[in-house]
Design a protein that fits this description.
Layout: H1 5-22, H2 32-57, H3 64-70, H4 73-79, E1 83-88, E2 94-100, E3 104-111, E4 114-122
Helix pairs in contact: 2-3
Length: 136
Amino acid sequence: MRRYLPYVLIAVVVLIGAQVLFKKKTTTGPTTATTAVQTISAMNLVGKGEQAYKTAHGRFTSNLADLLQLKPHLANNVATGLTIQIDASTDGHTYLAQVASSVLSLTRAFDDTKVTSQSCVILKSGSGVACPAPVH
């Protein structure tokens, strides 16, 4: 029995090593590409919501809660970890929106229906992560 002990130990080490080397790595949560798409989609929803709010009330809003009534899908984006910040001017004719995730940070400023300024910063690069085309 003692003469087989080294072979048994080597076999155990080889089996454990094989499991570690060939173990499939799994990730949980959305991919960077999915998160980037969600971030861009949320910015588009904010824009559509602000336009709908202005049509109904004659001014833009600084309150995300006002937009959630018009665009309920925004609640899903907030629940998945996106940060959405909105600031409207005192006269309500311009607003600034920022949507950020762990992958992208998007900022757009609007004057009525016209985009006056926009920026995009890639925070975490990956396959399928890109800034959206400029909106005019």
